[in-house]
């Protein structure tokens, strides 16, 4: 699979979220705070959805509410309630005991001396800090926009991650089939499991050996209520409007949608065409649709054994780039940056003598190194000048946030991505973050990705700098060899310098 073939386009997908409101929890022991907050935000809307307010008057009560409502988007949290630091203790409980990385926690305090801002932001996993005296109506609305936007994006990332795992799991099950007679039926069984189709689906093959449009579509596989139609002629077995939609899909070479069904059209590298009909399933979310399309693309490719492996990896890589693109788009970096970082990491892995499978996995995992930026406020993420010490503390949380987002997966690619997210800012001399690891205590994936990321970022335009030329980048890498960077990784980069520069020409910003 050549590099030009990997220049995949990002697709904007919203996570499935059928709730009609955003849940907001107000945790404060002052009743008037609850009343004022509800009054000020009563008409607030974000993404055409209202706010639903929940109240707690103590940290203990807030924890119970959070356990009952794990989909709370924003917690407006007082510090001093039943004790002087009840709110801060609740923050730790939410992140560590409840294991909830998604709720955006806005700390509101009327006694800033009890919880100094710089100490709290550094020590606790909160997302904003406000003194009650500064929360005017407009500032409270601004805070809510920022918090809800981050929550929505993080939920989208999680939905993508889960969806990717489901596609890979379902694909693995059907690819394990060796008997072609039940292969297609297994495809549809996994499709039904993937997105919960109500009645099932059926799969039709098309004989393209004829020059004219085929008169019949053979039903090659079925699931659910359609099992009785196995091997039947679709034109005889299905209602006229459905057959017409299938003919339209074949003629136009594109998917067809109707009120109560849709028909997907696929073609593999041998120009073999097929149609997938799904009935009574028009309630799919945009993410469900993308997963169905990705899964069915894998299925179509599965019939083409000569290209099965390359195409499956391409599909998985596209989903990786979708995940990485969500974070990079927020930080105003280019789609091709994460693509180049993956290819550079793979190149360096091979150059260092890593097992080929490990080097290839780096190609898919390294692009997710900055996925944690999805939780960083725009004002800090895209600030054109240097960060203040307080902003630097917040910015650095993206490493651990990214590791948490990816770390629960059992998939090797995503587990490696979690390790890279957590370690790609650790310096060789121990001066990095978040854990201050040094030397070979830093995972090799993190060491490789740091070199690949810095090399590519220096040659790219950012909101805070213009691109550097090749000589200046080379001097920087040499200057920090053995302090910031693993010396061996830098040496391998210098050995393949021309190849690394060629990547930018092949995949420009």
TrEMBL record:
GO terms for biological process: phosphorelay signal transduction system. InterPro entries: CheY-like_superfamily (IPR011006), Cyclic_di-GMP/3'3'-cGAMP_PDE (IPR052020), DUF3369 (IPR021800), HD/PDEase_dom (IPR003607), HD_GYP_dom (IPR037522), HDIG_dom (IPR006675), Sig_transdc_resp-reg_receiver (IPR001789). This is Putative nucleotidyltransferase with HDIG domain. The keyword Transmembrane helix does not apply. Transmembrane segments: none annotated. NCBIfam families: HDIG. It comes from Dokdonella fugitiva. PROSITE patterns: HD_GYP, RESPONSE_REGULATORY. It comes from the Bacteria. GO terms for molecular function: phosphoric diester hydrolase activity; transferase activity. The keyword Phosphoprotein applies. CDD domains: HDc. Keywords: Phosphoprotein, Transferase. Pfam families: DUF3369, HD_5. Gene3D superfamilies: 3.40.50.2300, Hypothetical protein af1432. Residues 312-509 form the HD-GYP domain. Residues 23-147 form the Response regulatory domain.
